[in-house]
Amino acid sequence: MSLINIELYKLRRKHLLIMAVLFLSVELTWAFTVTGKSISRNAGNVGWEALISIVASMNGLFLPVLTSVCVSRIWDMEHKGNTLKMLLTLPVRQNRLYAAKYVSVFIIMAAVCMVQVIAVAIFGLTNSFARPVPVFLLSGFLTGTVMVSMTVIALQQWLSMAVKNQAFALAFGMIGGFLGVVADLFPEKVRKIFIWSYYTGLCPVTQVYMNGSVWFTVRDHGSLLSSAARLIIVGIVFYFAGSIHVSKQEI
Description:
Layout: H1 2-10, H2 16-41, H3 48-81, H4 83-87, H5 94-126, H6 135-162, H7 166-182, H8 188-191, H9 198-201, E1 205-210, E2 213-218, H10 221-248
Antiparallel strand pairs: 1-2
């Protein structure tokens, strides 16, 4: 726990809180604006399902970029200041340091996801949606978003640790954001290859096009289990690949 506290302490001057608030504000403003316009056009077809689906789509764009920024910040100070060597003079293994950095970024992203869900609930209540807050749907949405973020963090951390130039990791995060937006246009077998597509792929609500209109339906949670299991396995592989890499690296 002390290593995690050290990592979070070092991040205080990296302006990550401001960055996270900025990203989240832009994303939610955009999502709520789209939802508000949909309500004004067709109030009967817009409710909690539509709002959750729209925010999930926005997550595919914004969260990969925010994750890459957070991970790059936490590794950039080690690469530039050569402080990794100093840290490893402490009686701690490299894989424990790697884990502490991972958990630190996860705490930030989990907090972002929690604030997002609370904001969605407040928006729905203030717009007098017909049904009460769907706790089950929001819990599924939060769980899926956190799971995808965990896998994206694992991949970005491996890249940020392995490549000293953090511009590469940031560019990779932007590519991930692009793929998170357009992946739903790909065939299902192709879409499943890209981890960023799971922001919508694990969302409990999906969009269905019928008769020229868009309808939002709730998925059967059982149908999401195979995708969730696949994502967890990929995340574990990314994490341990990076951990083994840093353990074998000469610092």
